Amino acid sequence: MALQDWGIRPVTPITDEQFSLWQAQIEARTGITFTQTRRPFLEISLSTRMREIGIDDYDVYYELVMSGISGEREWVVLVDRLAVQETSFFRHASSYALVEQYIKQRLADKSCYSLNLWSAGCSTGEEPYSLAFLVEEMITNHQRQDIFYGITATDISFPTLTKAKQGIYIERKLQGMPDALKFKYFTQLGNKRDWQVNSDIKNRIAFAQLNLMELDKAPFADMDVIFCQNVLIYFRRFRKRDVVTQLAMRLRIGGILVLGVGEIMDWQHPSLERVEYADTLAYRRIV
Predict the structure, then answer these.
(1) pLDDT tens across 77-91, in order?
(2) Is the domain of 126 the same as that of 182?
(3) pLDDT of residue 51
(4) What pLDDT band is residue 3 in, cutting at 50, 70 and 90?
(5) Are residues 19 and 160 in the same domain?
(6) Which residue range forms the structural domain that includes residue 134?
(7) Helices (H), 148-213
(8) Regarding beta strands 251-259 and 223-228, do their DSSP bridges make them parallel or antiparallel, or are they unpaired?
(9) What is the pLDDT of residue 167?
(10) Which one of 79, 83, 172, 249 is least enclosed by Cβ atoms within 10 Å?
């Protein structure tokens, strides 16, 4: 029996011309670059969405995406398919260890009464929630309940942000997290399969849609910590530099920018200095 008999159709190959067209449009609007090695992923993502809405031609779908309000709505759905969303709680432990060290120094400063953190490219929420757990634990351990803190979490994908706001995760997502944290900051739901972040933590986080290509529109400033990991990996070198430079200027003096290791090379900024910390890529604003 053929696949077609089961209703399963093979992915329609995308031509070189169509690939170049989609490649240019996606990069222009999101900064994400699709090289030839990622061409199969683009084919699968596009063809899957096309099949869902009854279109079998890449050019026809392109025209749809580019046309008016309906095209904008479709673009939101497509971006959610194209954005890399694989993440986990406390991913890359050394980066969180650096943030812990920085927060400890801030809490030791008796003139410090607030902390502002930003998870840029927050995906489904594991990163900003991890930051919130970390800050909560440190405030408790250092008896600094007089400190107010807030976390801004942004992502390009509306559907992904919706999932992040709900703060609901399957048991597998919490594997590796200490039970003390799990039972303190999550509540198991009635289906016994899912866990939801408690409301007091969720209330500390403001989720917002933001395209990193449009950071000039972001009204953020004086951040203590900006956490931006596994976001820039598919950006071109010059776009990475533009984004990181924009992020850097939203730090308070003394604040730190934490990036994914290896995501940007040979970048310097006159207002920042490299933070020397094992297995991390981070910068501190000095002026």
Answers:
(1) 888 788 766 789 998
(2) yes
(3) 87
(4) very low
(5) no
(6) 93-285
(7) 158-166, 179-185, 199-202
(8) parallel
(9) 97
(10) 172
Q: 194: domain CATH number?
A: 3.40.50.150
Structure tokens of 202? Answer: 């969720």
Of 59, 82, 105, the position where a domain reaches its end is: 82
User: What's the structural domain count of the chain?
Assistant: 2
Residue 255 belongs to some domain of the structure: yes
Please check whether residue 88 lies inside any domain of the structure. Answer: no
Closest CA relative to residue 222, chosen from 106, 57, 108, 142: 106
Burial of 256 (0-12, 13-18, 19+ CB in 10 A): buried
Same domain, 70 and 203: no
Give the integer Cα–Cα distance in Å for 35 and 33: 6
In contact, 39 and 19? CB cutoff 8 Å: yes
Number of H helices, E strands in the chain: 10, 10
Last residue of a domain, one of 16, 47, 82: 82
User: How is the beta sheet containing 272-274 ordered, strand by strand?
Assistant: 205-209, 148-155, 114-120, 223-228, 251-259, 281-285, 272-274
CATH number for the domain that contains residue 12: 1.10.155
Report helix angle 16-30 to 39-52, nearest 10: 90
E strand spans, the chain: 114-120, 148-155, 168-170, 186-188, 194-197, 205-209, 223-228, 251-259, 272-274, 281-285
Total residues belonging to the chain = 287
The two tokens of residue 197 are 């972040």
Of 101, 188, 198, 200, the residue nearest 150 (C-alpha): 200
Q: What are the structure tokens assigned to 102, written together?
A: 């920085």
Band of residue 7 on the pLDDT scale cut at 50, 70, 90: very low
Digit-coded pLDDT (tens) for 126-176 = 999 999 999 999 999 999 999 999 999 999 988 899 999 999 999 999 988
pTM, whole model, 2 decimals?
0.85
